[in-house]
Amino acid sequence: xxxxxxxxxxxxxxxxxxxxxxxxxxxxxxxxxxxxxxxxxxxxxxxxxxxxxxxxxxxxxxxxxxxxxxxxxxxxxxxxxxxxxxxxxxxxxxxxxxxxxxxxxxxxxxx
Length: 111
Description:
single chain, mainly alpha, 2 domains, 0% strand
C-alpha cells in the first residue's frame, strides 16, 4: 500500500482514481474494494487509459511512456514526464517491458 496516496492493489489504485472511473462511465460501478481485484483493477485501468490516452487528446498516438505517465501522475501525467516521480515510474515500467521482450525473444529463438 502507498500510504501517502492510499493506493492499494496490483495497480496501486487510489480512491480518486476510482471516483474518476465512475465519473467517466456515468455510474457508481466500482468500489474501493475493487482495487484488490486484479480483474476489476485491469478494467478500471483500461477505461482510464482509453479515455485519457486518446491520440486526439495527446496530439499523437500514445506511447508506453505516455501510458505510464498517465497512470502515475493522473490525467495530465503526459505533461509531467520530466517530474522525478514520473521519471522513476517510467524507468520501472520500461525495465519490466524490456525484461518481457527479452523473455519473448529467448522463447522465440528456442522454437
